[in-house]
Design a protein that fits this description.
The structure is a single chain. The protein folds into two domains: 221 residues, Cytochrome Bc1 Complex, Chain A, domain 1; 172 residues, Metalloenzyme, LuxS/M16 peptidase-like (Cytochrome Bc1 Complex, Chain A, domain 1). It has 15 helices and 13 strands. The strands form three sheets. Strands 1-2-8-3-5-4 form a six-stranded mixed β-sheet, with helices on both faces. A five-stranded mixed β-sheet has the order 9-13-10-12-11, with helices on both faces. The N and C termini lie far apart (57 Å).
Amino acid sequence: MPISYKRTEVGEGIALTEITDPKFKSNLISVSFVTPTDAHNAPMNTLVMELLASSNAKLKTLAELTGELAYLYGATLSSKSRRIGDCQENGLCIEYICDDYTIGHEVISTRAVELLLDCIFKPLLEDGVFSERYVSMRKKELEDNINAELNDKFGYSMRKAKEIIYKDEPACVSLLGTVENARTITSQQLTDRYYQLLETSQIEIVMCGRDFERVKPVITQAFSELERNGYVAVDYKALSPIKQDTAYERQTQDVNQSKMIMAFKSDYEDIYVTKVFAALLGGTPFSKLFSNVREKMSLCYYCSAAYSDIKGTLMVSSGVAKKDIEKAEEAILMQLEAVKNGEFTGQELEHTKIYLCTGFKSNNDSIYRMAEYYIAQNTRNTSYSPEQVCDIFMGVTRQQVIDCAKSFVYDTFYVMEPEEVTGDE
């Protein structure tokens, strides 16, 4: 039986996506609240999800919640918070074993889904607000995550680069905020934000796996009864404006290795041609950047390219010795120019397309990856299967790649470098 995809509206701004694949022995139910990214609300959105995932009005402690999950054959409940272009996606998801594989075919699916819904609709409140004790715990975890991000030099350099690449755009906002801001968030603010998410966010429900007959009516009824007020539709695709002149920024940090990020922007419409181009340039172990800049020229410790179709932005990230920064920048620009000039073989193009197809087909191997794959399809208003995308990849022509490469403009150069030259620098 092939994979089936179905998407329906179950309420104002509430969509239900069903992805059925009989090979899976478990189901994944994901509920996401999608909002425009806002510096004030972003960290509160994250905190709200953490609170919802750790207790509810029936299971008032994490220990009780964990015990219930253990009873449900080791089901897992987790929160999520991530960026999708100019939007923020926050939510909860539960994975549980299908009823066909329980002892004596015990029905646990409805109980698992009811647990998820209780966490969403029946949170643990004290005097009408989230528990001060639990809020303090979650805020401390948020502070720890902020500090961990500061210590992750690659992630921190990427965040600082995006502040320049996407200046004055929602995509430049940190989803975690600052330690100072985290400490000022109150239980009342989080409670108000919780109700705002229920009333105004775009809600995406995804069911991935098999045998949804018992749980679909439960989910549909719960969300169809949700009172909505001031619903805000999100537009996922928001191409980043191209700067009139390339922005150059160099910052010093306590790092041993310089982190260099170069951004290129385009309004080229075919995202699958662009994915082939990005992979050819720097997305495979045999790409132009890896083979030449890293291997032959030995100018980078790593060098790769990643493309965001939602923002129309290609980012080339590399680890570089401070003395080689200018040489590495020049070499990367030369490789981009080579692709623009068609200086790649038919074999290179063919291998790149096959490499991409292998990666896309692997989305079928994991229930989480399959769910994320179709969530990405939803952001593009498409429903291509991985196999259909591979057919598109294999049809991409040499001239299309050249035309696509020519559309990219050098937008931003950012380097986080050591204060002093050390070691092999």
